[in-house]
């Protein structure tokens, strides 16, 4: 991990659009740092409120320890230059290993995006204990990454609200895959919710979400930032218009397992040098990439 302790910023609840950066690889499969730097500068120049690394979109679970360290160090330096927060993905199935990851990666993070323990399907009480233990072990605020369709663990609204009230938890990245009853309760009663499903970002913002972490913002950062700004400023017509345009782009970008289409679009646009993804992800079909590029053009981006 990068050397030195990074001091987290005051008032840690994130707002606005935070971009979960893809991790660019060269045609030889190696980490491509210049492309990562170019993309990070691009999204921040276009209005992103912060960077997120080692999340799902960043293929964080498919990187080596050295690569993770390089990605964190690179984006830490860029975030410091812009004065924007850096969120780092950490966490796995078990509490002890999650603590190790959080302590290790937390030295360079303003926030840790910490996934709900997956696969083992613990009780809601077990999940509360898991986050309390991680929070007690690190001095960095946690963003709970709630994504039941990937983890296999659905949390009740009551538990999500308890998590938000937990010391050290700054917010929840909420990816329920729908506006369900628990999501409505969470937004009605909780502060610090970030939308994590690109297609649902607009309704979540209208219901009070503080911002979003959306993979599609890698390719259209300005439009996502503009939509969040329009909701914040009460310009409902502009926000809805942007949502309707972005929705077809989002659907095209997620037509195949993410981030394969996103990376191909970024490579076509010269923002990263190569579209390579790591196995078991596969390159997307040409038709999916063409469709996404067409949608992007309709945005004027
Ligand atoms: O990388 C992320 O963070 C995101 N994850 C969601 C997913 O896992 O599908 C989607 C979201 O756009 C960003």
TrEMBL record:
Keywords: Amino-acid biosynthesis, Cytoplasm, Diaminopimelate biosynthesis, Lyase, Lysine biosynthesis, Schiff base. The active site is at residues 145, 173. Its EC number is 4.3.3.7. Pathway: Amino-acid biosynthesis; L-lysine biosynthesis via DAP pathway; (S)-tetrahydrodipicolinate from L-aspartate: step 3/4. InterPro entries: Aldolase_TIM, DapA, DapA-like, Schiff_base-form_aldolases_AS. SMART domains: DHDPS. The keyword S-adenosyl-L-methionine does not apply. It holds the Pfam family DHDPS. It is found in: Cytoplasm. It catalyses: L-aspartate 4-semialdehyde + pyruvate = (2S,4S)-4-hydroxy-2,3,4,5-tetrahydrodipicolinate + H2O + H(+). The keyword Metal-binding does not apply. It comes from the Bacteria. The record marks 56, 119 as: Part of a proton relay during catalysis. Pyruvate binds at residues 57, 213. Belongs to the DapA family. Homotetramer; dimer of dimers. Catalyzes the condensation of (S)-aspartate-beta-semialdehyde [(S)-ASA] and pyruvate to 4-hydroxy-tetrahydrodipicolinate (HTPA). This is 4-hydroxy-tetrahydrodipicolinate synthase. The gene is dapA_1.
